[in-house]
Amino acid sequence: xxxxxxxxxxxxxxxxxGLCNNxxxxxxxxxxxxxxxxxxxGKDPIPGxxxxxxxxxxxxxxxxxxxxxxxxxxxxxxxxxxxxxxAKLSLEGQYPHSRYMSLISYDEAGRPxxxxxxYLIKPKEGAINPFLxxxxxxGSARSYSLNVIDAKPDPKQKTGMNLVGExxxxxxxxxxxxxxxxxxxxxxxxxxxxGQDETGGVGLPTPVLTLADGKVLKGAExxxxxxxxxxxxxxxxxxxxxxxxxxxxxxxxxKRGPAAPATNPPTWYQQLDREALYAIYTGEPLKVxxxxxxxxxxxxxxxxxxRTILNRKxxxxxxxxxxxxxxxxxxxxxxxxxxxxxxxxxxxxNQGFANTRVNDCVQDENIPVxxxxxxxxxxxxxxxxxxxxxxxxGVAWLPMADDGxxxxxxxxxxxxxxxxxxxxQFQHAVQNVGKPGDEAKDMGEYYxxxxxxxxxxxxxxxxxxxxxR
Length: 469
Hints:
By secondary structure, this protein is α+β, with helices and mostly antiparallel strands. The chain folds into 3 domains: 1-45, no CATH class; 47-226, no CATH class; 243-296 and 302-461, Jelly Rolls. It has 7 helices and 19 strands. The strands form 4 sheets. The protein has a 5-stranded antiparallel beta sheet, with no helix packed on it. A 5-stranded mixed beta sheet has the order 7-6-3-9-10. It has a 5-stranded antiparallel beta sheet with strand order 11-12-18-14-15, with no helix packed on it. It is globular, with a radius of gyration of 22 Å. The protein starts with a helix and ends in an 8-residue tail after the last helix.
């Protein structure tokens, strides 16, 4: 292959990324070849919009940048920058046509610091915030501006619940690391309306930098002053558990049983700090005061999560049932913002913690719910999928990857439930779970209960009684 020096350099980088980052399930050599063709044609080899400020992303399911367990209905972008001494930064944008949007700051370990969700952001004069209950979701006047402050947020600030009646005009993103310091903000969009692009039809927020001397730089002009191309100063475990640590955890779990840490029936764990994540494998007792959503990997403070480890040694088909919380309907471009128990919820099938790749997700509006208010979800490899595991039969299906955890154990899958922005009236949200071990008691009917079956057993147990017309 005769390549220019630039293409040879890019090829080396792509191959190095493939060796160092095990977050991709597709053929790496093919991906490199396709990337080279795209670069030769003057195209970016990674799909999705970006800007010089929002240069990293979008992260989502394949074929996007699939890392740090993104929800498959989500797109998020990372901005890494440094506000110059004496300068002020604001982000100007438009509320997207979507279920949810937020801007969240992080530290060097990938731990969230502050979230400013859509409904909290003050609209500009003459504009409306379409994320408020009852608001017009289709209006064209949807502009906002949010200040980015180099300071720590209030440590007592509530997270994960809908803070009805509050509003904010700033996001705290303190510097970390060496030299002049680095700041990180992630911009997320969940469940864009059908027919909209990754940005929900409004593009990405624009940085506006006011320097100490009063000069204003906007958009691409601001990027050099903000040093948006600087190298990342991140802890090596921020986006994934290091491979050697993950293998040590697998070895610890193997001493507890051939399928450990998977159990039958499944054990669900809250996402707490990193030590709590490791304890799933080691069996060490969890600290009752462990902080939530600090275990990685760039979690969303407006979500709370429970997860379980699945293992095909216990059965090729896993079935989970629970009562479905209510949420606003938005995918069809509804004109008014509705309300519900939660803003959003989903189940995601993921690979292991050294990979942090999502296989796929099913979200609230795409999950069949029966007359009794309950859902049924099947998780299996494609080859083991029951023939009646279809929406037409009232069943949602999620895939297990053929290579399992993506790090050596082909039988392992991580299943995760997200609950976003629960209301004070909904007491069964993951956000309201007390100490570890109280998940089933506190979530009640909304707690996901599962079991392993064979493909034939599921087909027999749940006949698809589609009405004949």
